[in-house]
Here is the input.
Amino acid sequence: MLFGIFINYMFEVDRLITAVLINAGIILILYNLYLHIKYREVPSKDERIRKIANTGLAYSWVFTFLIMNLIFWADYFNWFEITVQQVIGIIYFVMLISALLFQQYFKRLGDVE
Here is the structure.
């Protein structure tokens, strides 16, 4: 929101950009205020949940690294043609999906050693 106001006064930009930034800021503030009021009495994350989340993200990082190596070798041996945009898209997809799946897996397991 403040960035939208700042950019409006400092630079010559379209009013639509300023309006979108200010509205997005207001929406984010109201949404966070709503969440704060709704979940006021919910306990914060305990050590077990934090440990599960960190382990899931670590496994996701390793899995994404292996996929990047696979893409490298596939390109090196000319198994298929792939553009930079496709590689970045694959990496983003693998990062997000694997992080969610590993975290869900470890939540079902219960505790991580």
Remarks:
- The mean pLDDT is 85.
- Residues 2-38 form one domain.
